Amino acid sequence: MIVCHCQHITDRDIHGAINWMREADAKAIITPRKVYRALGKSPDCGSCMSLFLSTMRKNTNLEVPVELRGLRQATASKGKINAG
Ligand code: FES
């Protein structure tokens, strides 16, 4: 299925790029911009972004790794230590 008509990107292209990035870096935070870059393209009109994101969210490899999930909390705790 074509997701981005401007750049002719399919759902399979998106999933392939996400899987490739996850395999290359287990800690990568994968964004739409990174998917475009991995495919050697860049967004044009942007009207596909909601479908692009929902397609990305269907990929189980998109998930942020567990070790990065507590980063905000760890940073906030560190700030309290420095402030107090
Ligand atoms: S349809 Fe994707 S950038 Fe235009």
Number of domains: 1
Shape: elongated
* Biggest sheet: strand arrangement: 1-2
- What is the H-and-E element order? EEHHHHH
User: What share of the residues lie within helices?
Assistant: 55-70%
DSSP, total strands: 2
Question: Which ligands appear in the coordinates?
Answer: FE2/S2 (inorganic) cluster
Give the helix tally. 5
Structural class: mainly alpha
Profile the largest sheet: 2 strands, antiparallel
Secondary structure layout plus pairing:
Elements lengths: L1 E3 L4 E2 H14 L7 H7 L10 H9 L8 H4 L1 H13 L1
Antiparallel strand pairs: 1-2
The chain binds FE2/S2 (inorganic) cluster.
Report what the structure shows:
The chain is mainly alpha-helical. The protein is built from 5 helices and 2 strands; from the N terminus they run E-E-H-H-H-H-H. The protein has one domain (2-83). The protein has helices at residues 11-24, 32-38, 49-57, 66-69, 71-83; strands at residues 2-4, 9-10. The protein has a two-stranded antiparallel sheet with strand order 1-2. The mean pLDDT is 87. The protein binds FE2/S2 (inorganic) cluster (FES). Residues 4-7, 43-48 line the site of FE2/S2 (inorganic) cluster.
Keywords:
single chain, 84 residues, mainly alpha, two-stranded antiparallel ribbon, 5 helices, 56% helix, binds FE2/S2 (inorganic) cluster
Would you summarize the structure shown here?
This protein is mainly alpha-helical and 84 residues long.
